[in-house]
């Protein structure tokens, strides 16, 4: 839309418009958001009709639109600059977009253009401390991308690994720098790599929060006004925190450092729950001393929440030394079977003809899931809306044990929502069997499970 003629006449494109009547028109500047909205909508529908892309999860990212854009595309906030002002604005922007239902939103980390408030001669790049803060503070925002303009002599580089070689490749520009500045440059790559890996290890949590958005419409990165609406201090005494802290879902709180040259920031812990630090830090001595003034962003999680870390690809391929929050008696074996028990509850899905079968079991004898789950498991199974059954009666659910015997219990219930294509199944925790006669963390030769057998849901 940059440079789009603002006086160009455009149709309002209202629904149920009479094709025989010329629609009213307005100038492009008045319908700016509508143009982008329709562009995203057309792209979405066009990709869905493209041969080979039918019913696929086509990923579209756009800039500028109207409320409701989340149905068709994610949003990045446009061409920003490499400045601390833009970094502070970025966090507030994504939080604010969540209020209007934007599911996937984010910014260009490090800034797209150079700092607009500074006129610097080439070579130019993002300040290393700023890039570190951007990577560490934005790592759980939905849209996480380093993007910059290299053409027309704007920026020479912005990749974290390039900072490791900056003194070698741009020695003249960095001549006379202090040891602290050298250490700062050498710290960029390992710190940024750590947070990228940490994001991927939390990919399952991101996916879970995305799926939760499908059910309740809440954003992925949430403001505290969403997670703790009854906390009235957020409207007065603690209102300074509502646009510079965010939560991934309800349980992981991220508190970015938004100003240069500081090694701490005040943090507000919402609600009455206990919180503890999630950030494990890293050792960067092999590449450069971690400057005392560059401390990583504060990441906190609620004490009652179980965190499952993944490598972003497959749990079975996860290296044994990942910083897992293991159960006190988790298996120490490095086999894929043992690593699968990092999950405290085992859920397995398979298809048998027209049946969709979900098996639910506990990992070992005497395991108690109630402190984490409560009295009832609530499982949401979904299908594409285009193939979703149109009536509740079209979907049926039965429950069996491992021997194929039917299980009847008043707590075993389900409900199907045709408008969303979502089946919600409720299973009492007490009905889910443990792996019998097994020590904690060891694999059982025989599975014990509740089998949820779904018919009519593709």
Automatic annotation (TrEMBL):
Q: What is its EC number?
A: 3.2.1.20
GO MF annotations for this entry? alpha-1,4-glucosidase activity
- Which segments constitute the Glycosyl hydrolase family 31 C-terminal domain? 217-287
Q: Which Pfam families match?
A: Glyco_hydro_31_2nd, Glyco_hydro_31_3rd
Print the keywords alphabetically. Answer: Glycosidase, Hydrolase
Biological processes, Gene Ontology terms: carbohydrate metabolic process
Q: Boundaries of each Glycoside hydrolase family 31 TIM barrel domain copy?
A: 22-208
Q: Which reaction does it catalyse?
A: Hydrolysis of terminal, non-reducing (1->4)-linked alpha-D-glucose residues with release of alpha-D-glucose
| SUPFAM superfamilies with a match to the protein in the record | (Trans)glycosidases, Glycosyl hydrolase domain
Xref: InterPro entries = GH, Glyco_hydro_31_C, Glyco_hydro_31_TIM, Glyco_hydro_b
What sort of enzyme, by top EC class, is this? hydrolase
What family classification does the UniProt entry report for this protein?
Answer: Belongs to the glycosyl hydrolase 31 family.
- Protein name according to UniProt: alpha-glucosidase
